[in-house]
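Researcher: Can you fold this with zinc ion in place?
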Amino acid sequence: MTRTSTIIPIAAIAFLGTAMTLLANATWANAQNPTENTTMTQTTDQYSQSGHNITRLSNKQIQTLAKDLTEEERKIILNDGTEAPFCGNLLDNKLDGTYHCRLCKLPLFGSNSKFKSGTGWPSFFTPVDPDHVLTESDNTMGMTREEITCTRCGGHLGHVFPDGPKPTGLRFCVNSASLEFFEDGDTLPKAALPSKTQIAYFAGGCFWGIEDRYAKLDGVLNVISGYQGGDDSKTTYKEVLKGTTGHAESVKVVFDPSIITYNELLSWFFRIHDPTQGNRQGPDIGTQYRSAIYTTSDEQFNQAQAFIEAQQKEGRWSKRKITTELRSESNAKFY
Ligand SMILES: [Zn+2]
């Protein structure tokens, strides 16, 4: 079996399909280099955009987990096998829920991206988190295909092809044997859950600069650039750049509150941008560059409100009016 040794993120092959328009979308653009957005300052553990620990398991850990596999599952997951078409138990599953890695339980695909491809294998147009599935060129069977594997355990899932439906144009063709389905409401095993992390959102001008500063902090597990605060969910990043969408360029910060507190993140926010410039940040002018904090809990909202008031009264910015917008993230969805 001949394989290239380079592992590429799944989103990179979006170029093969009809998903070119999505490349203007900031969320997708980030998915192309998920590991570059992940700065591990505290431990060597790696976390996905959704806060799952995706540190690669050791061979010993994989072999321990594999003891629960049937002979057929072992052949497919550990030895790149393929189940016979139209035979897998999840092909016709129409229940709402999530498809996890059979071996390590990492969530891989959602029922909301499953579609009927007619190929005989469960098919999805996107993973639940682009960091959870890796692709690798597979030159077996006299052709070049893109094999897909679980990021955490390396278990073989199937292949991805550029002939799927919108919005990605991709078809993740997966063996039922590589998956374990959990219906919405089921109790999930610990290995299927994200780490105990919190999420914070900050907008402070061009998102690359803000992302870079937060990514360097201990306790920050992942930083992703996007946009939020506008009305149209279908907005593309190109439209955001025009400044007519109401969206602000923002960053999603996944952090471990036992290492860095939300108040410390607020403190950094007011150090790395100027919260008094209204609809601009330095040379960048437009509503998309406004200062904003989008909170994910009442506790965050109250802390942010108190922090802004304190800064206005006697902080570094007391001589000028702070223009930072403060809203709940539930009314300002991140894209
Ligand atoms: Zn896995």
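Model: Folded with zinc ion in place. Residues 298-314 form the longest helix (17 residues).
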